[in-house]
């Protein structure tokens, strides 16, 4: 390269910039040579020289200068002044001044102007190979020297001994300085790297990382290795803070290659990195800043270890060996120590450095998950177990979230299912003792199925935590994992899904233990004076005076169905009662089961009924249902007014928080079966997520496994199992297209959505949305009605339609799952269900669950399956319906008659066909004599529907009666019997009852007139306890709904006197109704007219029934503030308690 010519300048200044491509390897002989020319402007006249001669005369060399590129083991940069030589002798690079007046070495050189430094030059380096930074250059140079020395040492052992001492003049070590070893120099250089600029670090990142990582297995000095790791942490942190994280990922993925160890004594990168990270995290070496940086960027080091391990296996061929032989025991020891050290810092510093602790926990989880692919699985399980040992029940919420995030990552391993050993057992279902650990969360189960056992154990512990966010975090991990299994293309076969579901069998036991907390319809805390209402339809309705929540689905959470003996009725006598003249056909029967308080036509779903209690523990009037949209109460809303059990309002907040944590730990350790009672309820999103998990498991279980669980579980557990299914049906009931669409378009979900629990469980969730986030279960792709209100008015109608479809599909699928399980149980355990003609708790629970489908809103599609299941039930258990207690048959008739009034023609046709089948089956069961029981229960049910002001006088119900007659007339097998005539007679009587009670329909909005009409009906049935009691019940409910507690109390008094008189006829209560004479003079005259005939054999009142009626009366008397009556009433109750020593 040449510069421009400067004319007549004594001190020329050349401003040209020249770019020079340097060789990859620059040595001491590489230099820049500058030649200076004098250019002649005039040529002498008369010169006869040739062209070349003239050219020589024009450019005359006046001097030379040279600048070595490599001095003191580094490239020269910056401004330099050099001397100019008048000539360029051979070997000019060897010329070196000796100093101290001793002359120079090398060839003799004639300097211009006495050797003054006349020439200045400025050098700028732009290189990714050679650095300008002094600290980084020193480190690279020393690494190169060490590498060369070690290389020669491997060839000459003596040379390695000579290399132990070395002087570094470039470090400023004078001749008087003590001799430094390689390790001491390296220690200095490593510490100096902390001063290197981050831009320089990024430019030389791969080379720097390679040298630092290569240093770990090659050095025997612990301080050097420890400081190398410190520098690695510093560099990684600096690069990531400069937003160059992709450089770190690129290095690990494309650049890093581990040191290949050839002998047993050779050190490996992964082992040394684990060892030195552990040393760095020890308390003796603990540096808060370094530890914080490491935790924040620990993913880099864990990925380095993983890749080093993988490359080590591939390069040595150990990948083909057994897993427990692949790595040395020393590596396992190092890794255990490292994991323990990391977890300890995560637990201890989660408050000081929350973000680094969180990232460190996630990185550790991913690292351990990756170890499954390379190491012995048993060793990895030990690492997981060691991690979990650092967490305890009652830990702060942050630590609990870390724990479940760790489990989430571990369980997301692609081979999670094989790791849990889902082995198929070949024993049959009767060998339960050998399979017991598969059904419960036993130690053996947790050993055989480690990961799923650990997850379920932590799930069980989390459910006992007081903090709902902890519970929700745990539930979401389980829910998302089950969803992943369901959509995993590798496990779509039914048999594979069954084997996966069998891994989660202990989840059933966990939910059984928390069953009472899943039922959101019951009050949060028990009230001291409350007692369970009778199961024959009586109820305590206190909505005007208390915040007590609805008990509409209380039966779903009770292990057995408490059935009052008073429910039994004799078909013979009640048949005679049903045959009275048309003027007296306003028959009222006891409500065998709480039915709808509203006409099926009044709502928009297929069954058009509100949510009701299957066991009949609460009834509501139509008026109450109409104002339910304005009612501010729901079970969720009420829970906010109940102080937690650990809260002492008289103590400071800090004291209460400490008590909360200690109680949480105590509850978690003791479990739900501990003496510590759990009165709190899970929140709506938690309940729905848990139920979805439960249904997912039982849906996919094979029949053999599920039957094995049933066959070897206690009666209480089986009942609780079906109680949870009952809760599922209630929680996921179908809302109807109009309702879901309307809620989807509502902008503010927190406005007027606190509907009573009886209306809809989804409404409870919407009401609870004021204080809770939306349901987490919708995040997994499963739609939750709790999120319907979260949409703004801008939500498209298409989205609303889509959500409606999802809602209907989910409700239908849950219903079908429940029906399948019911069918399986009824087929497999028919003899147990027929025990005592069906008068056993399990049969009662199953029957209540069947009726739940008819008493809650369901889609039209599901109801077709429900009617098919009911027909199968009817064919399987005619003995239960027609020989056992009449209660079940009455409930069956009541619910089917309600469906006969549905707006949907298909539902009415299905209901009519089922009623006809019920009649015919009863007729066949009685050897074709009659269907007395169904006849009587149909009349009673119609009377009950009328007393509840359900509109049966419309054309839809009349059409249903015509359908029933048509079935009877077209049944050729019954034409020669009296069956068609009896069916026609029954339908005629029903029409007569409807006509006779039409006056009650006209006065349904006039409570006084309505009560007066019901009183006249009750009085007309003074000789029949069951029908009279039904109308007295109805009167009491109406009085209670309107706050007339004194009148309601007298209705219950008359009921109690009726029961007392019945017991007198049976010899159980000698006083009879005369014992009430002192309380009310007209009781004796009104209630002593019952007739003791065969019709009373189906009515089985007991002293418990009498006490129950009197206690109801006492509560109403207290509300009416007529305390003077209480003494006389308690005088009737106390002798009974004394006799029973209760």
CATH class placement of the domain at 1007-1139? Mainly Alpha
Helical stretch count? Answer: 50
- CATH 2nd-level architecture of the domain at 1007-1139: Alpha Horseshoe
Sheet with the most strands: spatial strand order: 1-2
Largest sheet: 2 strands, antiparallel
Q: In percent terms, what proportion of residues is strand?
A: under 5%
Structural class: mainly alpha
List unreliable stretches of 5+ residues: 155-178, 524-676, 747-795, 1092-1097
Family: Belongs to the DOCK family.
InterPro entries: ARM-type_fold (IPR016024), C2_DOCK-type_domain (IPR027007), C2_domain_sf (IPR035892), DOCK (IPR026791), DOCK_C_lobe_A (IPR043161), DOCKER_dom (IPR027357), DOCKER_Lobe_A (IPR046769)
Keywords: Guanine-nucleotide releasing factor, Phosphoprotein
GO molecular function: guanyl-nucleotide exchange factor activity
Describe this structure in words.
With 1142 residues, this protein is mainly alpha-helical. Among the domains are: 31-123, no CATH class; 139-155 and 174-256, no CATH class; 263-390; 1007-1139, Alpha Horseshoe (Serine Threonine Protein Phosphatase 5, Tetratricopeptide repeat), CATH 1.25.40. The chain is built from 50 helices and 10 strands. The strands form 5 sheets. A two-stranded antiparallel sheet has the order 1-2. Helix 9 (269-281) packs antiparallel against helix 11 (298-316). The radius of gyration is 45 Å and the shape is elongated. The protein starts with 30 loop residues before the first strand and ends with a helix. Mean pLDDT is 77; it is low at 155-178, 524-676, 747-795 and 1092-1097.
